[in-house]
Design goal:
Helix 3 links the parallel strand 4 and strand 5. The radius of gyration is 14 Å and the shape is globular. The longest helix has 15 residues, at 12-26. It has a domain at 2-101: 3-Layer(aba) Sandwich (Aminopeptidase), CATH 3.40.630.30. The chain is 31% helix and 36% strand. The chain has helices at 12-26, 32-36, 82-96, 111-119, and strands at residues 2-6, 42-48, 51-60, 65-73, 101-106, 123-129, 135-142. It is built from 4 helices and 7 strands. A 7-stranded mixed sheet has the order 1-2-3-4-5-7-6. It is an alpha+beta fold. The protein starts with a strand and ends with a strand.
Length: 144
Protein backbone atom coordinates (compact mmCIF):
# COMPACT_ATOMS: atom_id res chain seq x y z
CA UNK A 1 0.00 0.00 0.00
CA UNK A 2 1.18 3.52 -0.77
CA UNK A 3 -0.19 6.92 0.18
CA UNK A 4 -0.29 9.65 -2.44
CA UNK A 5 -0.34 13.28 -1.33
CA UNK A 6 -2.19 15.86 -3.42
CA UNK A 7 -2.02 19.60 -2.69
CA UNK A 8 -4.43 20.27 -5.54
CA UNK A 9 -7.38 18.43 -7.02
CA UNK A 10 -6.49 14.87 -8.05
CA UNK A 11 -7.09 13.99 -11.69
CA UNK A 12 -10.47 12.72 -12.91
CA UNK A 13 -9.37 9.06 -12.77
CA UNK A 14 -8.49 9.27 -9.06
CA UNK A 15 -11.51 11.48 -8.25
CA UNK A 16 -13.91 8.93 -9.74
CA UNK A 17 -12.35 6.18 -7.59
CA UNK A 18 -12.60 8.44 -4.54
CA UNK A 19 -16.24 9.18 -5.26
CA UNK A 20 -16.97 5.47 -5.67
CA UNK A 21 -15.38 4.62 -2.30
CA UNK A 22 -17.09 7.58 -0.60
CA UNK A 23 -20.47 6.45 -1.96
CA UNK A 24 -19.80 2.88 -0.80
CA UNK A 25 -19.08 4.12 2.73
CA UNK A 26 -21.54 7.02 3.12
CA UNK A 27 -24.22 6.37 0.50
CA UNK A 28 -23.62 9.60 -1.43
CA UNK A 29 -20.90 11.48 -3.30
CA UNK A 30 -19.08 14.58 -2.05
CA UNK A 31 -19.03 18.03 -3.64
CA UNK A 32 -16.01 18.43 -5.90
CA UNK A 33 -17.08 22.05 -6.43
CA UNK A 34 -16.70 22.72 -2.70
CA UNK A 35 -13.11 21.50 -2.87
CA UNK A 36 -12.29 23.58 -5.94
CA UNK A 37 -13.29 26.74 -4.03
CA UNK A 38 -11.03 26.09 -1.02
CA UNK A 39 -7.54 27.34 -0.28
CA UNK A 40 -4.76 24.88 0.51
CA UNK A 41 -6.65 21.70 -0.21
CA UNK A 42 -4.91 18.49 0.89
CA UNK A 43 -5.92 14.99 -0.20
CA UNK A 44 -4.18 11.91 1.16
CA UNK A 45 -5.11 8.80 -0.78
CA UNK A 46 -4.17 5.26 0.24
CA UNK A 47 -3.75 3.01 -2.79
CA UNK A 48 -3.44 -0.77 -3.01
CA UNK A 49 -2.30 -1.50 -6.55
CA UNK A 50 -4.75 0.62 -8.61
CA UNK A 51 -7.53 0.66 -5.98
CA UNK A 52 -8.30 3.54 -3.61
CA UNK A 53 -8.62 1.90 -0.19
CA UNK A 54 -8.66 5.01 2.00
CA UNK A 55 -8.60 8.79 1.88
CA UNK A 56 -8.56 11.92 4.01
CA UNK A 57 -9.37 15.31 2.50
CA UNK A 58 -9.28 18.74 4.10
CA UNK A 59 -8.59 22.39 3.44
CA UNK A 60 -7.60 25.65 5.04
CA UNK A 61 -10.42 27.06 7.14
CA UNK A 62 -8.44 30.15 8.11
CA UNK A 63 -4.81 31.16 8.36
CA UNK A 64 -4.57 29.33 11.69
CA UNK A 65 -7.02 26.41 11.28
CA UNK A 66 -7.18 23.44 8.94
CA UNK A 67 -10.52 21.67 8.46
CA UNK A 68 -10.37 17.89 8.06
CA UNK A 69 -13.46 17.51 5.91
CA UNK A 70 -14.01 13.93 4.74
CA UNK A 71 -12.32 10.57 4.84
CA UNK A 72 -12.86 6.88 5.05
CA UNK A 73 -11.40 3.43 4.58
CA UNK A 74 -12.78 0.63 2.41
CA UNK A 75 -14.53 -1.84 4.76
CA UNK A 76 -12.34 -4.66 3.40
CA UNK A 77 -9.19 -2.80 4.52
CA UNK A 78 -10.27 -1.56 7.95
CA UNK A 79 -8.41 -2.39 11.17
CA UNK A 80 -5.05 -2.15 9.41
CA UNK A 81 -4.09 1.32 10.69
CA UNK A 82 -4.87 3.10 7.41
CA UNK A 83 -7.08 5.81 8.97
CA UNK A 84 -4.49 6.45 11.70
CA UNK A 85 -1.68 6.73 9.14
CA UNK A 86 -3.70 9.15 7.00
CA UNK A 87 -4.52 11.25 10.08
CA UNK A 88 -0.88 11.26 11.20
CA UNK A 89 0.31 12.42 7.75
CA UNK A 90 -2.39 15.10 7.60
CA UNK A 91 -1.39 16.50 11.00
CA UNK A 92 2.30 16.36 10.09
CA UNK A 93 1.55 18.36 6.91
CA UNK A 94 -0.57 20.85 8.91
CA UNK A 95 2.26 21.46 11.37
CA UNK A 96 4.63 22.20 8.47
CA UNK A 97 2.07 24.71 7.18
CA UNK A 98 2.08 26.28 10.67
CA UNK A 99 -1.59 25.78 11.46
CA UNK A 100 -2.46 26.08 15.15
CA UNK A 101 -5.16 23.41 15.09
CA UNK A 102 -7.10 20.89 13.03
CA UNK A 103 -10.88 20.88 13.30
CA UNK A 104 -13.37 18.29 12.16
CA UNK A 105 -17.02 17.37 12.60
CA UNK A 106 -18.66 13.98 12.86
CA UNK A 107 -21.92 12.34 13.81
CA UNK A 108 -22.45 10.06 16.77
CA UNK A 109 -23.41 7.27 14.35
CA UNK A 110 -19.84 7.30 12.97
CA UNK A 111 -18.48 5.98 16.27
CA UNK A 112 -15.26 4.59 14.82
CA UNK A 113 -14.33 8.02 13.48
CA UNK A 114 -15.26 9.70 16.76
CA UNK A 115 -13.11 7.23 18.72
CA UNK A 116 -10.22 7.58 16.25
CA UNK A 117 -10.27 11.36 16.64
CA UNK A 118 -10.32 11.13 20.44
CA UNK A 119 -7.44 8.61 20.42
CA UNK A 120 -5.39 11.00 18.30
CA UNK A 121 -5.72 13.97 20.63
CA UNK A 122 -8.89 15.70 19.51
CA UNK A 123 -11.13 17.39 22.07
CA UNK A 124 -14.88 17.81 21.71
CA UNK A 125 -15.40 21.57 21.59
CA UNK A 126 -19.11 21.75 20.74
CA UNK A 127 -22.20 20.30 19.12
CA UNK A 128 -24.95 21.57 16.85
CA UNK A 129 -27.87 20.28 14.81
CA UNK A 130 -27.36 20.40 11.04
CA UNK A 131 -29.95 21.38 8.42
CA UNK A 132 -31.19 17.75 8.25
CA UNK A 133 -31.87 17.71 11.99
CA UNK A 134 -28.88 15.47 12.73
CA UNK A 135 -26.72 16.27 15.76
CA UNK A 136 -23.05 16.87 14.90
CA UNK A 137 -19.99 16.87 17.11
CA UNK A 138 -17.25 19.48 16.61
CA UNK A 139 -13.71 18.34 17.46
CA UNK A 140 -10.40 20.15 17.53
CA UNK A 141 -6.78 19.14 17.98
CA UNK A 142 -4.16 21.74 18.86
CA UNK A 143 -0.90 21.38 16.95
CA UNK A 144 2.69 22.17 17.83
Amino acid sequence: MKIDIYEQMPDHHILSKLQSLHKNIFGSTFSEERLKQKNKMLALIAMKDDKVVGYKIGYEESEKYFYSWIGGVDPEYRNNGIASKLMYLQHQWCEKQQYNAVQTKTKNKWRNMLILNLKHGFDIIGTYTDSNGDPKIILQKKLG
